[in-house]
Write a structure and sequence with these properties.
Layout (H helix, E strand, L loop, with lengths): L10 E3 L5 E4 L2 H8 L6 E4 L4 E5 L5 E6 L1 E3 L4 E3 L1 E3 L13 E7 L1 E8 L2 E8 L5 E7 L3 E8 L10 E3 L1 E2 L4 H5 L13 E4 L24
Parallel strand pairs: 1-7, 5-13, 8-13
Antiparallel strand pairs: 2-3, 2-10, 4-5, 4-9, 6-7, 9-12, 10-11, 11-16, 12-13, 12-15, 13-14
């Protein structure tokens, strides 16, 4: 994924999914009775909305502190969350998004792509404590691996409760995640406008 650099002088342990988007004010207010400010470039260390283990909406900082060094963890591999000490005492949560960014590496170039589900929120499995939260990731679906080999563990709305209750039997994500190339302006954490998710012409590098 893209090198995010040192945000607020923290070293960030990076796997993937380092930026995402939540802009649907009316949809969010109608569903959760909360007013939000649209954010087209949500970055680690920012406060984000998640659904907690009690199925309530709460705000937490994106990222948890690694105990063994001064690092911020923003992702957790789904394959190892049951055995890694870093995640042993974390509760389950769900991130709410309109979509996310991922970067395709080609030699020394990294090209951003915006990923989304048409006309719906895109939910990510997560883990949290009383301070922060992380996105749970998995191997990418074959068609998404053209951009990156890892992706968030996606959930449908009716699978949120299953994730919270650790019921894997109901979690099968079969919706199509669309993606297209976007401007490299998203690389700048201070840029935040709807221009960031607009498709740009793909360039051969």
């Amino acid at each position: 994924m893209v090198e995010l650099g040192n945000l607020r002088k923290d070293r960030i342990i990076k796997i993937m999914c380092g930026r995402y988007v939540l802009y649907s004010k009316e949809k969010f207010r109608n569903k959760y009775n909360i007013n939000i400010s649209p954010n087209y470039n949500i970055s680690p260390n920012q406060e984000v909305f998640v659904i907690d283990q009690n199925m309530n909406i709460t705000r937490l900082k994106w990222g948890i502190r690694a105990e063994w060094k001064n690092s911020l963890i923003i992702n957790a591999r789904s394959e190892t969350i049951e055995v890694k000490k870093s995640f042993a005492n974390l509760n389950r949560c769900v991130f709410i998004s309109d979509g996310y960014y991922e970067w395709k590496r080609s030699g020394k170039f990294k090209t951003p792509y915006y990923h989304y589900v048409q006309n719906r929120f895109l939910y990510f499995a997560g883990l949290y404590n009383n301070i922060g939260c992380v996105v749970v990731t998995m191997d990418s679906f074959q068609y998404l691996s053209k951009v990156h080999r890892r992706q968030p563990l996606f959930l449908k709305e009716n699978q949120i409760d299953s994730w919270i209750k650790k019921d894997k039997s109901n979690i099968i994500f079969d919706e199509i995640v669309n993606f297209h190339q976007v401007s490299t302006e998203v690389n700048k954490t201070w840029c935040n406008s709807n221009d960031l998710i607009i498709e740009v012409e793909e360039k051969v590098q």
